[in-house]
Amino acid sequence: MFKFLFSITTSTLLLFCAEYSAEEAGRHIGEEATVCGVVVSSHYAKSSKGEPTFLNLDVAYPEHIFTVLIWGENRDQFKKPEIRYKNQKICVHGEIESYRGIPQIILYSKKQLNP
To answer: What is the pTM of this model?
Structure first.
């Protein structure tokens, strides 16, 4: 019963978090929120340290305005995300961070993604 109540509470909390577009996300660094947009470019950097996968929302790299980052250790949960989510609208939930001036959310779990 406790797991069930926790699940409801977590889902309820997600409903009350702020939601932003990829363009708005940069004004909310440090906030836990949901960011939505279309995956317009992506890249799996298999030979890079940590094997990151980058999904850029609404504006393609190198002019990108928001990035979803999935580290290699979590990649299997997303089943080739650079292909699976290309040209699709997605929403991601987590802490909005900034990397080299570009806002991003790191996905550790598929539960953070709503395709």
So the answer is: 0.85
User: In whole angstroms, what is the distance from residue 91 CA to residue 73 CA?
Assistant: 21
- CB-CB contact of 17 with 93 (8 Å): yes
Residue 74, φ and ψ in degrees, nearest 5: -110, -5
CATH of domain 19-114: 2.40.50.140
Strand pairing report for 113-114 and 102-107: unpaired
Sequence-distant (6+) residues with CB within 8 A of 21 are: 35, 36, 37, 58
Give the number of other Cβ atoms within 10 Å of residue 74's Cβ: 18
What is the residue-level pLDDT of the chain in tens, covering all 115 positions?
A: 444 433 444 444 445 679 999 999 999 999 999 999 999 999 999 999 999 999 999 999 999 999 999 999 999 999 999 999 999 999 999 999 999 999 999 999 999 999 8
Domain boundaries, the chain: 19-114
